[in-house]
Structures are given as C-alpha cells and as structure tokens.
Fold these 2 entries.
Entry 1:
Amino acid sequence: DAKTTQPNSMESNEEEPVHLPCNHSTISGTDYIHWYRQLPSQGPEYVIHGLTSNVNNRMASLAIAEDRKSSTLILHRATLRDAAVYYCIHSGAGSYQLTFGKGTKLSVIP
Amino acid sequence: EAGVTQFPSHSVIEKGQTVTLRCDPISGHDNLYWYRRVMGKEIKFLLHFVKESKQDESGMPNNRFLAERTGGTYSTLKVQPAELEDSGVYFCASSRNSVNYGYTFGSGTRLTVV
C-alpha cells in the first residue's frame, strides 16, 4: 500500500492561506503525488497532482520537497467552500489505483 | 462537460436481495473505476475498466459483486445477495486514458442493507 501521513484536522480563517502538509516517505522515483478533496455528501474531487516540480492550477498550488518525501497543498485564500477532507495520495506511474487514507479535515472559520 | 452520474443516489434493501448500481462516466473517458467506503473505513478501490475490459479487479471483496461495462460506456455493479457489511457509499470515477489526468468522481450511491 502506498501510505501517506497527514494531520487529522486543521483550521483556517476565511480568506487566509492554508498549507496542508503530507509525508510520503515511501514514495518511489516514478510515483505521482495526487491531492483530492471530499466535500460533505459528495464524491472525491480532484485538486492537483505533480511529480517533481511545483505545480499551480486554478484551485491550488502543490509544493513538492526536493527529496519528494513530503509535499504541501497550498490554498491561497481559504473560503467556506474549501471546508472538506483533503487526501494526499501517491501512486505508481503504471498504477491507476488511488489509495485513500484518512485525510485532513479542514475547517474554515468565517 | 457533464460529470459522472450515478444512479440511484440512495438504495435501501433487505439482506439477501439483489441491487444494481449504475454509473455513467464522462463521454470519451475510457477508464472507469469503482470505489466504496464502508462505515468508518477509508475509501477503497474495487475495480478498473478500460473500455469494456476489466483491467484490475483486485479490490472486489468477493464473488457476490459483479461489475460490467457493456460496450465501454456505462457500467453496472451488482451485489447478489447483499449482506449487511455491504452497506456503504459506492463511488464511480472516470478518467482519460492516462494516469496523468485527474479522476472525476460521481456523488456516489449510498447503499443500506437491513
């Protein structure tokens, strides 16, 4: 199993940046790092993914450590709609399985 | 584009009955996946289709579960006979033909076996 370690929960004030950490010390050289989130009563939602370089998209930024054993998902300005469980996943280049852990429950305070 | 559609959104059945869940992936997505979350546990992979072929069914819990994807379009997941431990939320996802693309998940079917 591709294991990752994330804090159980985090809080953020609305409109402030949020940095969600993830440790993936067992990652191999060809594994991608994926982030998904799950809002209440919905299916998981793709956020971002990367391999080695930092990545940006309209939802978030992904900062990957140089040794790739950890990464950080950055939400630049948290909104109430960002309250969700965030999952960090790494999977092999040839694998289509996503191994979900417990994730980090993000609460956003108005 | 339309998202991944799952039907029904909720199903309550008695132990021993049969239930069929349906998933309509995003048009053009060759890859289709089934996942489930049973009570108190993490989301687990069940199986992966590429078009109409089962690519990986290593997560299927037992032979009471049968997945099909006729013609490479929509997919069905049948549970026969249903047991109490099958209760949970079943998610379907689809993706383009590369692991480099994100998966789009449906909202899930909440199955309750009583």
Entry 2:
Amino acid sequence: DAKTTQPTSMDCAEGRAANLPCNHSTISGNEYVYWYRQIHSQGPQYIIHGLKNNETNEMASLIITEDRKSSTLILPHATLRDTAVYYCIVRVVYNNNDMRFGAGTRLTVKP
Amino acid sequence: GAVVSQHPSWVICKSGTSVKIECRSLDFQATTMFWYRQFPKQSLMLMATSNEGSKATYEQGVEKDKFLINHASLTLSTLTVTSAHPEDSSFYICSASRWDRVGEQFFGPGTRLTVL
C-alpha cells in the first residue's frame, strides 16, 4: 500500500471549514483513498473514501487531485465534536484485506 | 447496520494472569476480523488477521503464543493475552469486514487493558 503523509496537528475554529491534507505521491492506479477518524479512547470511525472522483457524504467531502498524488478531506462546518485524529489511508480494495494506519492528523476544533 | 462490539470495554488484571477480549459483529456475518493494538499517543498497529475456522495470521513481531486468537464463528473472535505483563497494557481494537461491503472495515469501540 502507498505511504501517506499528513500534518501532525491542525486547529480549526468552530463553525468554519476544516481542510485536512494528505499526500500520497506514490499511489497506484488501483488504490483508493480512505479517511477514518478516531475520537479519544474510541474505535476508528469511517468518514469517506474515493478512487479518483471527488466524493461527498453527510459527514465530509473528499477532493482528490487530478494526478491523485494528494487529497483533502473537508469538514464543511466543524464542531467541537469533530476534534479527533484523522487518518488518511491508501489501499487496494479487495475482500478482507487489512487496513494500515499512519500517524494521522490531530484536529482540534476551538470555540 | 454493521455494528461491532467488544467486551469488556476495560479490564484491570494482575501481572501473570490471562485476559480474554471478545469481538462480536452484531448484525452481520464477518468474513474476516482484525485485531489492533494502540499505545498512548500512538497510531493503531495491526496485530493479526483472523478468518473464521482457520488459524490467525500474525504480523511480524507479534507473539502468537502470547496473543491467542480464536475465531470460532462468523460473529465472534476472541483475543487472549496470556501471562499479561505491564508492557501489555494498551488499547485493543478489533474490526470486521463483510463480504457484501468490499473494502470496508467496521471497528469496535476498543478495550483498555491495564496490567498491574
């Protein structure tokens, strides 16, 4: 699986958009970009994933650059409850394959 | 759907004892279950992959005789930490995948183990 690089930490004001970048310059054509988050002392929570098109769901939007070497997770209106560690994971998708976590970005939403 | 539970949510034990952690898929049959360990302020580290009815596949550096994994049914996997020591104190998290949601993993809430 391709390696990812994320900033160690970020701050965001409550109510503003949080934009979390992820670099995956060695991504292969068949690898997807997944985003999970982990609130303190809980299990990881799925947010969104995509291959090459931008994706949006009720939680967030995922913007993937045209060359697929980087992506940005956007939380449109961050709340205090969005404070968590956000993990960007790049992986091939097939049944039952594992998921490897990097260091992630610790996002702190401030009032 | 796709809820995974873990029991217990936390456990404190004496050094030298064994502790069993259960991971259950509540509303689906899990084709594969995964066990992770997370030390404070660190990321999740995959320990092993478990398929129902077969032996678990352990990651390099994880002692299979110390971390016994049993995957007896499509909804239950157990992790037993044998002869636990203080350095085994950690947050243990399981996840499960299902055949009809390829690529997704559903995570449990985690179990915090403290060995005194």
